[in-house]
Amino acid sequence: MRGKIQLTTQIIIGMVIGVILGAVFGTKIAGVKIIGDIFLRLIQMAVIPLVFCTVIAAIGKLPIKRLGRLGVKTAAWFMGTTFIAALVGLVLGWWFKPGVGIDLKLNPELVEKLTGHPVATSDMILGFFPTNIFDALAKGNTIQVIIFALCFGVVLSKANSQQKYQGLVNGLEKLNQLLVDLIQLVLRLAPLGIGALIASVTAENGLTVLIPLFKFLALFGVGTLLFLAVLFGMIMIRAHMSLRTVMYGFANILIIAMTTTSSAASLPVEMHDAEKRLGIKKEISELVLPLGMALNSNGLAMYLALSCVTMTQFYGLSLSFIMMFKIVMLAIVACLGTVAVPGGGLGALTIIVPTLGLPLESIALLAGIDWFAGIFRTVLNVVGDTTITIMIAADEKQLKQVGLPVKN
User: What is the number of alpha carbons within 13 Å of residue 90 lying toward its C-beta?
Assistant: First the structure.
């Protein structure tokens, strides 16, 4: 009986075949790009409703009392660490320029849109708030959709205090799961779609497209290690844990995160080890960790910011301060309610890239190495969630000392 080839392996094979075909046949096969474009559109069609349902359900199912002081504290930690992670990704990309070396062509109209008309900061901030949610949904304006979903979620949480709207919450969660299943179904086409996009890009630019990919992964790896060091340092100082205790507490979490590249798959292990190995009481871990999986993604934020900067370098665009600010803000809001399963980073990119005015095909190169990037993303996501849970537990006096296992 033949063993089933995992999707990750299929994507890598598709990317390799695409590179070979593009290098050998050149512009003769540039037309295969349409296959990749169809794949990207299929993913993009489900992302906005998925974000909409996930955020409302995540907030709406929480008791309103828990959205008080503890909720504000949790949200502050989420926003703070996500902002820093996005900023690290932005700085790494801006300083080391992993996207330099590829000269992709950008539509002149898009160049004018990105560089020709600076937008006032006040106008950009005002643009975060919708006047019509249906218009925001139709146009795929992610920031406005998330703002509405957050507000609606708070109202739903308050209205559901007597479980009168539990059916709506359950319905949103079921719809959310169906949308996740839809995206997972579309992702089965990833080997073909990504292979076609890579073949087209290679046909136009040659094998030089591979160099920035290695630079990108190396930078992301360095950023991950630096951020992990900061997170572990915070735990050791605030929770008074030794490095040995921290490493013991996170050992299983790190292994599961690296092997599954899924925050959702890592959550059961996080919740178990948060209590048994790290000493976090249930009333804190059961609130913060599931909410963190849906609304807090340090690794994804760093990845998205680094990816966006890299893509602008693909097209030789210079980054203004406003553009940098927009990238960081988009990286933060795109982490709210994104898919916590393998391939979720690809879906998040389809949110940000069009919002920045860049072509969707910009995703093709980075999509080819998404599994490798997914390891770094997931590790930072789950460690970030658990770190915040520890910090809140320590602040709320809900952290107990847990001894290390004694060797016989």
Answer: 21
